C-alpha cells in the first residue's frame, strides 16, 4: 500500500489542476472568438459582368470568375413572360441590372470556396461594410434573382409582392431552366456526333 500524500502536496496538485482547467477554458474561449471572426474582405477590381450572378474580376494579376452567393439569377439566354404574356429577354436585363449595381468597381468581396465549375463563391459589396450595396441582396430585391438561402427570403418576397423584374409575369426558376436547356444541348450534341 502506498503512503498517502501530505496535505500540502494535495493542495499543490489541486491548484495545478485548477490552473490547468482555467488555461484550457481560456484557450477554448480564444479559439471560439478566433473562428467566429468573419472572413476578411478583399478589394477586387471588376473586369466585367458575365450574367446576373457572375462576374469576372482581377486578383493577383489573374482573371477570376466570381459567383455571388445567396441568389440564383435568371440565365443570360433565358426569357420570361410579362403579365400580358409577351416574352422578353429577362436574362439580358438581369445582367444589365448587375452591371449597373457593380458600376466600374472595385468590389469588396468576402471570398469562400470554389463551386463545381471552378468559380469562386463570394459575397460582394460596392463599398466596405456597412456602407455600399450588397449585390446579392439588391439583385433579389430588384426581382432579378431568386433567393437560395433563408436570409434573402424576405427580399424575394418583397420583389414578388411588388412584381419587380422576373416577378412581373411567368418565368422558369433558373435551376429548372438550366436543367431543361442543358439536357437539350446534350441531346443535340449526341445527335450531331451520331451523324
Write the layout of secondary structure elements.
Blueprint: H1 7-36, E1 42-44, E2 46-49, E3 54-59, E4 62-68, E5 71-73, E6 80-81, E7 87-88, H2 90-102, E8 107-114, E9 120-125, H3 135-141, E10 145-147, H4 153-162, H5 174-194
Structure, described:
It is a single chain. This protein is an alpha+beta fold and 195 residues long. The protein has helices at 7-36, 90-102, 135-141, 153-162, 174-194, and strands at 42-44, 46-49, 54-59, 62-68, 71-73, 80-81, 87-88, 107-114, 120-125, 145-147. Strands 1-8-9-4-3-2 form a 6-stranded mixed beta sheet. It has a two-stranded antiparallel ribbon with strand order 5-10. Strand 6 and strand 7 form a beta hairpin. Helix 3 runs parallel beside helix 4 (153-162). The protein is elongated and about 95 Å long. The relative contact order is 0.14.
Span of the ends, CA to CA: 92 Å
Q: Give the CATH class of one domain.
A: Mainly Beta
Strand residue content? 15-25%
Helix content: 40-55%
The CATH topology of one domain is given as OB fold (Dihydrolipoamide Acetyltransferase, E2P)
> What's the overall geometry?
elongated
Separate helix tally: 5
Largest sheet: 6 strands, mixed
Amino acid at each position: 500500500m502506498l503512503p498517502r500524500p501530505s496535505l500540502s502536496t494535495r493542495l499543490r496538485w489541486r491548484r495545478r489542476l485548477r490552473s490547468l482547467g482555467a488555461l484550457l477554458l481560456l484557450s477554448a474561449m480564444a479559439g471560439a472568438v478566433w473562428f467566429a471572426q468573419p472572413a476578411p474582405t478583399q478589394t477586387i477590381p471588376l473586369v466585367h459582368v458575365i450574367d446576373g450572378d457572375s462576374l469576372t474580376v482581377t486578383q493577383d494579376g489573374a482573371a477570376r470568375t466570381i459567383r455571388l452567393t445567396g441568389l440564383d439569377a435568371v440565365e443570360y439566354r433565358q426569357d420570361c413572360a410579362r403579365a400580358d404574356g409577351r416574352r422578353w429577354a429577362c436574362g439580358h436585363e438581369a445582367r444589365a441590372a448587375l452591371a449597373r449595381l457593380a458600376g466600374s468597381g472595385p468590389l469588396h468581396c468576402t471570398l469562400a470556396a470554389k463551386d463545381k465549375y471552378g468559380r469562386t463563391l463570394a459575397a460582394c459589396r460596392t463599398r466596405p461594410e456597412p456602407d455600399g450595396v450588397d449585390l446579392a441582396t439588391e439583385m433579389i430585391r430588384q426581382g432579378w434573382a431568386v433567393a437560395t438561402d433563408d436570409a434573402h427570403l424576405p427580399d424575394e418576397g418583397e420583389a414578388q409582392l411588388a412584381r419587380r423584374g422576373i416577378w412581373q409575369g411567368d418565368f422558369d426558376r433558373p435551376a429548372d431552366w438550366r436543367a431543361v436547356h442543358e439536357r437539350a444541348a446534350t441531346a443535340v450534341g449526341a445527335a450531331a456526333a451520331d451523324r
